[in-house]
Structure formats: structure tokens, C-alpha cells
């Protein structure tokens, strides 16, 4: 064993410091790359060709259709650039358009409460 090994100080790897700000980078990206995810609900009596036109408007502006909904409501989730989202908000065939986000339910932790139907005290 090298006698000087114990006395030598261990060199730490240099920390990488970012040289640019992430938000500054995002501001320089084209608007269509900074699209936000929305859930778009279509009105009940809207013809299929009108729904197709709405989807084409989204994709032609740089957006993308992620998922289609046909069970509880007619609509889709899509990544839509800001300008296209603003133009779609007043569309005659769109019932509602909201930002797609994570939803959480109430957490019943220690000291919390649970409704009767959760713990089985009530029968239906």
C-alpha cells in the first residue's frame, strides 16, 4: 500500500452549475412546442364532420390529439398551442374546454374520517 495514500486528500468531482435559466430556454422555443394539455368536451348534437374540423384545426396549428372520449361525454384530450386554445374557447360546437391536470381525492389518514359507505356501516 502506498504510504502517501492515507495523507492525500480525496478530490471531489466538480459540481456542474447550469449556465442558463430553464424558463429563458422555454421562452425561446416556438409557441407550438409549448402547448398545454386540455380536455375538450364537444356538444351532444355536433356532427362528426365538425368534430373532425376542430381536430384538424388543432393539428394544423402544431397541436396533437392524445385521447378520445366517447363513454361519459364526447370529446378528446389534446396538446394545444396557446393561440389555438384561445381561438377554440368560443367555438360554437365546444361545450367546455379545461386544462388537463391531475386530480386527487380526499385522503383519509390518521385522525381523519371516513364516510359510512367507505367502512361498510351502511347497506344500500
From TrEMBL:
Chain spans, region Disordered: 1-25
Basic residues bias: start-end ranges: 1-17
Pfam families: Inhibitor_I9
SUPFAM superfamilies: Protease propeptides/inhibitors (SSF54897)
Inhibitor I9 domain: residues covered: 53-106
GO molecular function terms attached to this record: endopeptidase inhibitor activity
GO biological processes: vacuole fusion, non-autophagic
Family: Belongs to the protease inhibitor I9 family.
Protein name: Inhibitor I9 domain-containing protein
Organism field: Saitoella complicata (strain BCRC 22490 / CBS 7301 / JCM 7358 / NBRC 10748 / NRRL Y-17804)
Amino acid at each position: 500500500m502506498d504510504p502517501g495514500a492515507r495523507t492525500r486528500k480525496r478530490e471531489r468531482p466538480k459540481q456542474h452549475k447550469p449556465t442558463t435559466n430553464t424558463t429563458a430556454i422555454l421562452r425561446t422555443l416556438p409557441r407550438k412546442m409549448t402547448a398545454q394539455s386540455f380536455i375538450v368536451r364537444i356538444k351532444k348534437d355536433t356532427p362528426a364532420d365538425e368534430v373532425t374540423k376542430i381536430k384538424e384545426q388543432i393539428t394544423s396549428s402544431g397541436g396533437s390529439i392524445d385521447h378520445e372520449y366517447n363513454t361519459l361525454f364526447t370529446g378528446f384530450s389534446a396538446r394545444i398551442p396557446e393561440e389555438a386554445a384561445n381561438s377554440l374557447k368560443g367555438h360554437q360546437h365546444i361545450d367546455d374546454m379545461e386544462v388537463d391536470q391531475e386530480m386527487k381525492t380526499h385522503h383519509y389518514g390518521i385522525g381523519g374520517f371516513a364516510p359510512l359507505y367507505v367502512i361498510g356501516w351502511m347497506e344500500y
